[in-house]
Amino acid sequence: MTFARIIILSFFITSVKAQFGGSVFPFLEIHPFMKLEVNTTNNKDIEFVFNNDQQLLNGVSLNNGLNVKIKSNRNWQLNVSSQGDFFVEQSNNSQLISATVLSIKKQTDAIYKNLSASPVILANGGRGSDKKSGNFFSLDLKATPGLDYEGGDYMLNLIFTLSPD
Amino acid sequence: MVEAKIIPTLNYSFSRLTDNMFGLKLRNTNQKVSNNFFNLNLLSINDKNILTHNINSNNPRNAFYEYDLVVKPIGYEVEPGEYFYSIIFTLTQQ
Lengths: 165, 94
Hints:
In chain A, 12% of the residues lie in helices and 42% in strands. By secondary structure, chain A is mainly beta. In chain A, the strands form 3 sheets. Chain A has a 5-stranded antiparallel β-sheet. In chain A, a hairpin with a 6-residue loop joins strand 7 (102-106) and strand 8. The longest helix of chain A has 14 residues, at 2-15. Chain B is 0% helix and 47% strand. Chain B has no helices and 6 strands. A 3-stranded antiparallel β-sheet of chain B has the order 4-1-6, with no helix packed on it. Chain B is elongated. Chains A and B meet through strand 1 and strand 2 of A and strand 6 of B. Strand 2 of chain A pairs antiparallel with strand 6 of chain B.
């Protein structure tokens, strides 16, 4: 009986190895991040030139005039508005041209949206880098002043706003 | 032998990070160990050997091992929030 106990005990000792444990508890705190880049195709100001009545009446389009890149870890919405409701007159004419003369759309959309000081939704998208489909795209611009405005130079600033959706 | 594994614990957001975001890399030691342990070891929910030490060939007294804890690039696909983990180390006699 004694012999049997010794055998069992020795087996137990040789089969168990010393073992110690420890833990650390890292955590990640990920903050919201959103970045918007809007660039003209050749990094110059966008210029619309009207040489005849057809251009004034039917408008002049600038396809892919702006390139947009978005990096965001939140779903996003892109809005655009003009800085004011009217173009800023550059050649000492006192005439006001409504910002609605200028319209804009995402390149893949069909319908232009008129600009004003009130923001309009231009695009929506999801989390991801600017390499993700939907987070990079081009914008088309169109100016249709008609025949009601005197010739001259007029300028309008556009404001793009990226916000969580 | 030292093994390590990582377990997600709490998660204050709607999305979940993958478990293999963290890695350990031996930065400094006063012991002779294999060069392999100076490479980045990505952790997972399964034990991974991050150090093997032969007591017969080195002086174990006052031994120290300094590790870098590395987080892989998170990118933009992960929702903002707080993500908590436990890294569990197990020291086993060889």
